[in-house]
Design the sequence.
């Protein structure tokens, strides 16, 4: 039962353009979401989060959008840089008494110079 | 600042052999600790979490176990490894249980032959 889905296993984008990574979820109880970036042979590093009381959160080049009715969130990276090449995971949790995040399977982003 | 360490970084073990992976956190007290596994092509799967010394919660029934002998030490063990135990094992910590950013260690690549 894949409650958090990242349907695009990979994405290639030219340097300087926008990268859009998508994430869909099925559990309507999820109300807090995170994005992580992971380089090979390293642990994931936290990028940005969003609570369901918002529909957008911005941090520098990274913006996360949340569409609760569609159960969809996306991460926008503008402008994309070669150092952004990594695997990106979205994760979701329900704040009503749960303790764990459900992670998606990841999208591998390649930014071409 | 807080840091999280895992060792070893890589491990190759025969089927049926025991396993012990260690995780330690520095710079914080009473962290919540987590063990995740990333199998090939899969997302991050939560295996165990701990809210305090000696307190372990298991998420997935398997031949793995976890222990927390000290506040900032988390150990993942197995008495007899299976081929299916191969994967990338990640330890993480957070301040709060539930809705809080989790910070990951560098991971251990385990190959069971």
Sequence:
């Amino acid at each position: 039962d894949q409650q958090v889905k990242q349907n695009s296993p990979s994405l290639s984008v030219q340097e300087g353009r926008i990268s859009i990574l998508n994430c869909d979820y099925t559990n309507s109880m999820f109300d807090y979401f995170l994005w992580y970036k992971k380089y090979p042979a390293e642990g994931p590093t936290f990028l940005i989060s969003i609570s369901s009381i918002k529909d957008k959160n911005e941090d520098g080049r990274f913006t996360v959008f949340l569409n609760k009715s569609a159960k969809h969130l996306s991460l926008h990276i503008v402008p994309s840089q070669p150092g952004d090449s990594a695997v990106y995971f979205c994760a979701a949790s329900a704040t009503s008494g749960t303790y764990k995040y459900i992670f998606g399977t990841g999208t591998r982003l390649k930014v071409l110079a | 600042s807080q840091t999280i360490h895992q060792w070893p970084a890589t491990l190759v073990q025969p089927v049926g052999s025991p396993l012990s992976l260690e995780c330690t956190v520095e710079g914080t007290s009473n962290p919540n600790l987590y063990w995740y596994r990333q199998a090939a092509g899969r997302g991050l799967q939560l295996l165990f979490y701990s809210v305090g010394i000696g307190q372990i919660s298991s998420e997935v029934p398997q031949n793995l176990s976890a222990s927390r002998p000290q506040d900032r030490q988390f150990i993942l063990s197995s008495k007899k490894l299976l081929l299916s135990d191969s994967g990338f094992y990640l330890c993480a910590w957070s301040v709060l249980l539930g809705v809080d950013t989790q910070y990951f260690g560098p991971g251990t690549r385990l190959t069971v032959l």
